[in-house]
Specification:
CATH topology of one domain: Multidrug-efflux Transporter Regulator, Chain: A, Domain 2
Number of helices: 6
Low-confidence stretches: 1-5
Structural class: mainly alpha
Helix content: 55-70%
CATH class of one domain: Mainly Alpha
Distance between the termini: 53 Å
Mean pLDDT: 87
Length: 138
């Protein structure tokens, strides 16, 4: 990793955080990450705290939080807002549970259709295709 006096270039920051340079620029554009001043040498420098911030944002995204929600969590990171952070997490958990219910329903329908496809013999219409062609669907 490129380091100069405890600071790094945007490329080094991106590499250290495991993202593309364009991601860093997007986070800056949206206000999730500070844009350091450009010194006389013309190269902006980033610190280890910036790496931690980008990693935090990516970790929040892996849990399904939007970038806006990740920004909210970052603003709550002073130790005094755990209840507000928990409320965001509870809302996210409710969404995940709802999506899991939907996925279980999809799994059930697809499982039935796959079994029907494997048992269909002769010149009958494929049960999967016939079901998808119905106006109301499965």
């Amino acid at each position: 990793m490129e380091k100069v006096s405890g600071t790094m270039s945007i490329g080094a920051l991106a590499s250290a955080a495991g993202v593309h340079v364009e991601t860093i620029r997007f986070y800056q554009l949206t206000g999730l990450l500070r844009t350091p001043a450009r010194p006389a040498q013309g190269i902006r420098r980033y610190a280890g705290a910036d790496v931690a911030r980008v990693r935090f944002i990516k970790a929040a995204q892996r849990l399904g939080f939007s970038l806006e929600q990740a920004g909210q969590l970052l603003r709550l990171d002073d130790g005094a807002h755990c209840g507000e952070a928990a409320a965001l997490a509870e809302a996210r958990l409710a969404d995940v549970r709802e999506r899991l219910r939907d996925l279980r329903g999809i799994e059930s329908v697809l499982s039935t259709l796959v079994r029907a496809c494997h048992t269909a013999r002769g010149k009958v219409s494929c049960p999967l295709i016939a079901t998808l062609q119905q106006a109301d669907g499965p």
